[in-house]
Amino acid sequence: MSDVAVTEAELQAYADGLLPAERRAAVEAWLAARPDEAERIAAYRRLALEVRAAYDTMLSEPVPERLALVASRRAPWRRRAVAAGWLVAGAAIGAVGGWQLKPDRPLAQSAPDSTVIARRAAIAHATYSPEVRHPVEVGADDEQHLVAWLSKRLGVKLRAPKLDDAGMSLIGGRLLPGDNGPVAQFMYQSQNGRRLTLYVRTEAARNRETAFRYARENNIGVFYWIDRDAGYALASADLSKDELLRLANLVYKQLEP
Amino acid sequence: MDEAKRLVELIPRLRRYARALVGERSGADDLVQDTMERAWTKLHLYRRGTDLRAWLFTVMHNVHVNRVRAERPSDPLGDDMPELAQRGTQSDALMVRDLDRAIARLPADQRAVLLLVTLEEMSYDEVARTLGIPIGTVMSRLSRAREKLRAMMLGQLPSTKLKVVK
Questions:
Q1: Which of B14, B43, B75 is the last residue of a domain?
Q2: Looking at the structure, do residues B34 and B101 belong to the same domain, yes or no?
Q3: Segment 16-55 of chain A within 8 Å of chain B by CB
Q4: How many CB atoms lie within 10 A of CB B126?
């Protein structure tokens, strides 16, 4: 039996349990006649177990946030735009378009328009949320008028979500210029002065929906999504990602028809 | 998109492999991050119906090779690494008793093959496709990697429990 030729590749496959069944008996007989070789292959098997035991803990570890963020579609070109400073990027919209169309970044060509809303919303948040005297154009004391006015200008029926149960009260809203027409911004504030803005714009392409996505633009966290004919972005520099997500869920639920 | 979801699901496995390949945590996560970013930009090149895991590990392999190349012009531990002829002596046993360090001392080409087979439990054919090398090369690298690792680990007392890497 031991004169049946056995190759080194077969011994490796045997160690890995990858040897075809019909060769197993021959290899085992070959090893039985060669204790040194049998010990060598047994050592390979032990080492494989030890290597797995050493590194398998990585499988159950929570994924670090920076990796989870990449996974939530933080395309590199966008990070680059952020690094360059979104205020500059916002002022030079043409330049941003140029980045997106760079031929060596194929994803950017198909980069969803929805990512733009996160940046716009962050810029609007940065501009108006620090305002002490004029954070809004129309105050929440005249909420009915505010909502009717913004709805009329955007051409869709808007609602200002109620977030009082989550500790955020509507303080008012304003009309902003957008890429494809007017945009609405609602502003909320907590008792200790933390602010949150909801940026709403109409979307040309109907029946397009996206999941919640998260972006961070210069310390401003933004959850954004598109639902039918409107795009939403909830932004805050004062709230954690978890708090913001909870609020985004509340907003989403209330805006569902 | 289905592929996007599967990419995310594969992150822990990429981290495990990267941790063993790179030898330390933050460098490993840097590698995973670069891999994920590259994978996003290249996802349109992935052919549906083919093995996404193999594709992703190929992306990681290429990123890793480029990084190593950028860091060091040549691999100091080439295939000509001394076979640790004095194995079994006290000092050698102490030097290489740590499995993690032993793996780090393997030539990079061999280390990749060994880890894909051992950690990812890939078939030799999958390893060949992932690394873009002939299957004969997979077999010879695997064989050499294992023998080196065994040699390095010899002298370690059988009762010594290997530590889980941090």
A1: B75
A2: no
A3: 16, 18, 40, 43-44, 47-48, 50-55
A4: 18
Domain at A121-255: CATH code: 3.30.200.100
Q: Residue A124's closest CA among A71, A173, A83?
A: A173
Backbone angles phi, psi at B35, to 5 degrees: -65, -45
The secondary structure of residue A190, as a DSSP letter, is -
- Who among B11, B37, B139 is closest to A76 (CB)? B37
B65 and B141 belong to one structural domain: no
- The predicted-structure confidence for A17-32, as pLDDT tens digits, reads as follows 999 999 999 999 999 9
Full domain range(s) for residue B58: 1-75
Q: Which of the listed residues B52, B75, B98 is the one where a domain comes to its end? A: B75
Q: How far from the centroid of its chain's Cα atoms is residue A226's Cα?
A: 14
Residue numbers in B near A59 (CB within 8 A): 12-13, 16
What is the mean predicted confidence (pLDDT) over B2-19? Answer: 87
Mutation for testing the A interface, residue in B5, B11, B21, B42 having most A CBs under 10 Å: B11
